[in-house]
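User: I'll paste a sequence; please echo it back and then give the predicted structure.

Assistant: Echoing your sequence first, then the prediction.
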Amino acid sequence: MKRVVYGVIALFAGASALHAQEVPSSVPADAASEMLWFVEVSGNKNAVRTAAANAGIEFEERFSYDTLWNGLSVRTTASQAAAMTALSGVVAVYPVDVVELAPHAEAGAPDLVSALYMSGANIAQQAGFDGTGVKVGVIDSGIDYHHPDLGGCFGPGCRVAVGFDFVGDGYAAGVAPAVPDNDPDDCQGPANLIPGLTQSAGHGTHVAGIVGASGDVAQAGARGAAPGVTFGAYRVFGCSGSTSSDIMLAAMERAYADGMDVVNMSIGSGHQWPQYPTAVAADALVERGVVVVASIGNSGSTGLYAGGAPGVGAKVIGVASVNNTHSNNQYFTVPGGAVPYNPATGAPPPPTNGTASLARTGTAATLNDACNALPAGSLAGKVALIQRGTCSFHIKSLNAENAGAIGAVIYNNTTGLQSITVAGTPAITIPVVSITQGAGLYLDGQLAAGSVTITWQEGFISQPAAGGGTTSSFSSYGLAPDLSMKPDVTGPGGAIRSTYPLGFGSGYAVLGGTSMSSPHVAGNVAQLLQSEPGLAPADVLTRLQNTAQPVLWWGNPGLGFLDNVHRQGAGHVRIDRAIGATSRVSPARLPLGESVASGRHKMKLDVSNSGTEAVTYAVHHEPALATSPLAHSVTGRFGPFQFGFYASLATLDAASSVTVAAGGTTSVQVEVVEPEGLPDKGLYGGYVVFTPDNGGDVIRVPYAGFKGDYQTLEVLQPASNFAFPWLAQLVGTSYQNRPAGQVYTMVGNDIPFFLFHLAHQSRNLKMTVRAVGNNSRNWHSILDVDYMRRNGGDNPAALADSFYAVSWDGLVFNPSGKKVFVVPNGQYQVTITAQKALGNPSQTESWTSPVITIARP
């Protein structure tokens, strides 16, 4: 089980291989004593600091924000943070999320070249729109500005002209402290990675390349959507591990101060609210004239309402991912044909000419896995054929290298062509490539019968990609928890070849995820801004959504159903259509909210024609598939984790056409009628379509809504394996349920823990404590958090669980005395109260704990 520590609140993401109660020994049991918090302030922050000191509230201040958001980020306990909510001038507190970089490894290696064709970026480039004069800020892991495709230098006159490193190479959230400096370079090699932590190095360089690499594709370079942009690089990740959302917010303020026109954030925290501080700050950036583009998240496996902040921000362009249409791979040839491959990161680039003999490292029966040392010289002068599995790619490659191999070909043990890394210590000095399982088994069979010679080739081989043009499996589902429409648009993100730090090998890598689709759209935005300088951010979003192309349902494109609006938004961006478009419909999206009594949602759309002649638009309707929750396979409860697809389609009532004079605007009334056959709690959507009679591009307006009473969605639910909520005790490395109550000494980790599972987002979550037998004596809450995100990671097939664990240190706040104090020994009960999403203060669910006996020595 993977434990992501948030301090007092720790999110547990279960894994099938481990029992969901286990606390890994690698995480100290007392790691949950403190955490980071955003404190939102309505006025003067100094007054809040003074009030907190007078109340005895202790905290360590990390950042003070003045431009995009008014408040602080602090380190303190949950009870101290809860006390702060009662201070005059404090609006709310929010947990500072731990944010991970998690590009999704996808089969195949679609290239930027075909991705540019998908969005029309190539057409815009040919028309002269390459982003020249537009400044794009990349908040990420830094940019390797040494890379020739990204300019080769840093500072005035360079493509990476400004930036700041907020963290340093060795930083990792909760593991190693930040050491800021003025050099926003990406991590420069495997030697700087922290063992045991996820690699974050290279992500920002890859993202920047998608925005605007200017390499020569004919020479295996990378060329992005807007190769003329100027970059601002804002590093918020070290070489390994995670960052925190308060650092992200500081980077946003710096990007604004540096005058960025566009900001891309291929990072975020899933299952979040548009009211979360990073989303609110991103909206403030937009209000100040900066177009903000952000990935919607890679939480497609965790169900509905999974979009991440800042991508769920109301004014942010939240981007989903669509799979690339073609795989453009480097390749070698063998007798019988071409073998496409992906070069491994962390190894030298493969040659582009020459021949070599291929050699097995075992037999098919022994898997050719190369996980054990091979006889010295057994592979001298040959390229080793190795199967994936059993041990790391680094170990396999190192064993082949030590046996004298001059290269390694690693074939998959399942379907697809994967992207791999062989980064490690010592560094691999031979080229390593990855091929498909089918190609590997074919070569293994040929070697069993005789010899095989491979010939390295220059350039790429192109072939259609599986699932091309449909929504990527990892891309998060919406809507946002306030039922606003998210995501907004999609871009190509299903495994993209782009720039990578030079210290990791060839200078290029294949990564996939909404991390890759977001910068593609950011590059498209730069092209649009170059074509029409001064275009307001709101108009940028309208133009992109109006001209987007919805994609077919990934489950079976042949059925002809459009994919869910709450998965793809307006559809795939077509920047060639957005540039110069003379038709516009606003609003550009229609969030319908929950059901109304009539089942009919009436709206007004304004159709504008900036052309020189009157245009008549035919008005029609394109419905999309709906989803509705299913009873959980274990708990039997309805939630976001399991759902079905429904061809229960909404209908549209509207005039059949509307005529708009040249330079004019005409309003049209439309009514969306909710689908009758869709079960309650379902999400539905579609598109109002305007087809001009002058041969211009079709304009679409997406809509999406919730059928039924939104307040029927449960918040506090049991998880797959455990009937949460629990009063718990930490015994060794496991939490144990104490349904009959428990005595706590309050020494060390012998304190009460409360475990609960949120199946839906909560508008406010409180935990209050009272003395047993004295109902009039109610103290301030242990926890008081606005806009609480739901749990993710619930995987019924693996019977995995996710939950929050909150400890109580015995500290409470006396509202009348405005002081914090420690409760005396005695008996207490704690009540958890979760306010429903969009609910009023009386629409809540609650649970009261068994009796807690505090008996200090």
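Residues 1-32, 104-110, 796-800 have pLDDT under 50 and may be disordered. The longest helix spans residues 514-531.
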